[in-house]
Amino acid sequence: MIGQLFTTGIGIYQQYPCDDNKWIAEVFFEDESHAQLRGVQGTLATKYGDDLFECVRTVKQDAENLGIRMLSLPNTKFKLYVKRLFVDNAEVWKQIEGVAKELDLEVVSCLPK
Questions:
Q1: Which of 81, 76, 75, 74 lies closest to 28 in space, CA to CA?
Q2: Global confidence as pTM
Q3: Within 13 Å and on the Cβ side, how many CA atoms surround 86?
């Protein structure tokens, strides 16, 4: 039997190696099924867009509409995973932090050191 679908947060990617901010927001989800480990897995993503806030807000709302729950430990926020940046500077990080604050998410860098 398929269990409740869940995710721990939203991943963001810059799409192109240029000065333009083209973003993709993505939710990777699994089920809580007791029948089979990783019985259901999937990805819900936006098309690339110029507005990071709109990309993240849209994929978050779509996940909620599909019944995908965001799970986190008690007293922690849901995550905004930064997975790929072509332009890695203070202005981009300010934009990311602003989106996280607006949507009550915690920024987690998944970038290589």
A1: 81
A2: 0.85
A3: 12
User: Following DSSP, what letter does each residue of 48-94 receive, concatenated?
Assistant: PBS-HHHHHHHHHHHHHHTTPEE---TT-PEEEEEEE-SS-SHHHHH
Query: 60, 87 in Cβ contact below 8 A?
Result: no
pLDDT-based confidence at residue 37 (cuts at 50, 70, 90): low
Domain ranges of the chain: 5-109
- Do 110 and 81 form a contact (C-beta atoms < 8 A)? yes
Task: Kindly report, residue by residue over 45-85, the tens digit of the pLDDT.
Answer: 988 888 999 999 999 999 999 999 888 888 889 999 999 99
Residue with tokens 């332009």: 87
Sign of CA dihedral 111, 99, 47, 28: positive
The tally of CA atoms less than 13 A away on the side-chain side of residue 41 is 5
